[in-house]
Amino acid sequence: MRLSSWLVAIVAVLAIFVDIPKHQFSFPFNCPGVCVKIGDFQVNQEIKTHLGLDLQGGTQLVLQLQFDKLPPGSNATQSELQTQAIRVIENRINSLGVSEPVIQGLGTDKILLELPGVDDLQQANDVATKQAFLEVKVPDPADPTKYKSLEPPLTGADLNPNGVYVTFQSGTKPVVHFEFKGAASDRWVQISKDYLNKPVQITLDGKDVSAPVIQTVFTSGVGIIEGNFTTKSANELAIQLKSGSLPVPLAVIQSSRVEPTLGRDSVNRSIVAGAIGLLLVAFFMVAYYRLPGAIAVLALLYYTALTYAVFRLVPVTLTLAGIAGFILSIGMAVDANVLTFERLKEELRSGKSLRAAVEEGRRRAFPSILYSNLATIMTAGVLFWFGTGTVKGFALTLAIGVGVSFFTAVVVTQMLLHAAIEVSSLRRRRLYGVEEKAPETRAAGAPVAAV
Amino acid sequence: MVRFVERKWWYFAFSGLLIVPGLIFLLLGGLKPGIEFKGGTLLDVRFDTPPTVAEVTEVMAGLGRREAVIQVAEGGRIEIRTLEMKVEEQVAAEAALRAKFGANMKDVNPQVVSPSFSGELIDNAVRSIALASVLIVLLIAFAFRNFGWAAFRYGIAAIISLLHDAAVVLGFFAILGYFFNVEIDSLFVTAVLTIIGFSVHDTIVVFDRIRENLRLNPGEALNPVINFSIMQTLARSVITSLTVVLTLLALYLFGGFSMRNFALALLVGIVSGTYSSIFNASQIISLWQEVEDRLRHRATPSPA
Predict the structure, then answer these.
(1) What's the pTM value of the predicted model, to 2 decimals?
(2) Which end of chain B is more exposed for a tag (fewer CB within 10 A), N or C?
């Protein structure tokens, strides 16, 4: 066997290995996927099919950072604020226990948030947009009915995350316990001395939460936020305070939620559509091209297995549009074979031997195959570059599909064709859709003389 | 021998027949932007047995959503379109629908785009169309780099036929939008760009063959060479489209509901692309040559 045949065989085995659902075995031994460790180079890649939100259900938000609502005088750059906001949201989501969330910046003024399995829109919205900016304010000497910020302000940034939790007052009323850290702790004690028997206001996002009158001098930096909390809202506030406040107000500019049952339904429909598409194409190819058609079908199965393996390995998150790209690429993958087989038929009709015709068919179809693939990959590249969400998914799977189909058409189909013509019983011209005896012997490409 | 070139005016006329009605509806504002491009809310509500539009309208009116547009969709679904809803309003709408329809309602799948964001999505779409057009022209230039001076006319012909395909799809959706309120979204733009890529390579395959045959038959007139080249590539063009059409048909009939219009746009565009590469692109080359011959004839009158 030639080197390329070995390559094709090895790739096939690997692809099928990757395609098999992971729970059936693990590789190398006790790791769920591919684990490589060479010195500092480590890969721990779990092999599985990643489904997008529209297929597994969940909530997606696009958030706009509202820089125009920042108090004047803040000098952090947009991308710094974005990074901070992402970190805060990440912390909050981790406390909620969402598996495989996606939090990423879009440009420098937006954040994409994907929460698989989260069905509570309100909760997702609160996690992403509640600023949770806590500040302690004291009575304004100029106007005792008002409160003013301390200098410098005493805020939630000075809280000790481990000291923030929900407790219950008189056994049933949920309140949020907090604790200042370091110097802020001393300031908190000092405030209780300075403002003994006076109210001190605790504000959250600029709103008054509680304004207790200080009745004793504190001995530590500990305090309690009272409010009309339910256990759930107290928990959410505790999480938000622990994770820190968002450095800039956020607004939801796009949201979508897909129920898991709808996602499951879409997956099923896509599988059916893909299988039927594949069957239709396979049936047609065999009916029209006979033996080469059957070879193309083999190549197509190879193509499907390999592309799916690439999706699982990269990994590519499959969305509905992504699956559409995949199904479309099945149809397009056949094109390279069609170009080759049409040439093959022509060369056979012109009187060439089978072997010469196969070789000539490959050589002369190649530029067309290259252009057609280039055209599609270019379009996919543009779509990937500018597209958002759905469009990106489509572009990525289409590009991968076309790339893989180039390999299968140029290498796998050719290998199988060459293998087939070595078998004497497969050498009959009729199997290639051509009359047994060549009816005319004029050279290909000299047709006009016959007009 | 099929007379592809000689009948070119028939084929051009047929294209006109396909494009002109679409263009009329395009001008009438038939192309309806979806919520992605104009902002707003789409509630995709699934039922066991869908209620009447009137019942849903009543619920929405109870929420003060008098602008709600309610449509029955396939798969036991009802689509409710309103202006942008805040998260609280979405939660309230779901609760109201649940209260009215109970267990008969399977679930609500809301999608909201703020009008401020839709402008950006439109910009993205326009930018991707512009960049794709530039790249396509470069690809055409690259594909025809060995054509010498003739490259220009082949390039123009390829561009005209891709505009043809874009016009057919846009017109088709303008008609659907006008009569059935079918909306276009970023997936539609994606479909148009995919069609353009497909159409161009289809055309390139035919042109490549014309060039090859011209080289093999020096001195032969252009029209017979074009006829023969189209014949030679006909099977390939038709079969490739057919396999793509088969997969798209499967996607249209059996795939996810939200992919239907996408699959439909691709179907129409691919069929149009195949038609234009067989019946329009090469005919433009032929027409160009005829016009050029006539002009040259006039410029240098025969000595007789």
Answers:
(1) 0.84
(2) C
